[in-house]
Amino acid sequence: MNGIRATLGRELRAYFLSPLAYIVAALLLTVNGLIFGIIISFLSDPQAGIGAPLEFFFGQTIFFWLILLAATPLLTMRLLSEERNSGTIETLMTAPVTEGQVVLGKFLASFVFYAFLWAPTLSYVGIVAWYHEVDWGPVASGYLGILGIGALFLSIGMLATALTRSQLVAAVLTFALLIPVWTFGLFESLVTSETAKTLLGYLDLWQHMDEFSKGIVDTRHLVYYVSATAFFLFLSTRALAARKWR
Amino acid sequence: MIEVQNLTRKYGDFTAVDGISFSVGDGEIVGMLGPNGAGKTTAIRMITGFLPPTDGQVSVAGHDLFEAKVDARRNIGYLPEHVALYTEMRVSEYLAYRATLEGMTRAEANQAIPEVLSDCLLEQVRRQVIGTLSKGFRQRVGLAAAILHQPEVLVLDEPTVGLDPKQIIAIRELIRKLGKQRTLLLSTHILPEVELLCDRVVIIDKGRVIAEGTPESLRQSWQGEGVVTVELKGSPDAAADSLAALPGVVSVAAAAAGRYELRCRPGSDPREEVFGAAVEKGWTLLELALRQTSLEDIFVRLTTSDRSPEADPTESGEAN
Question: What is the fold of B224-292?
Answer without folding.
Answer: Alpha-Beta Plaits (3.30.70)
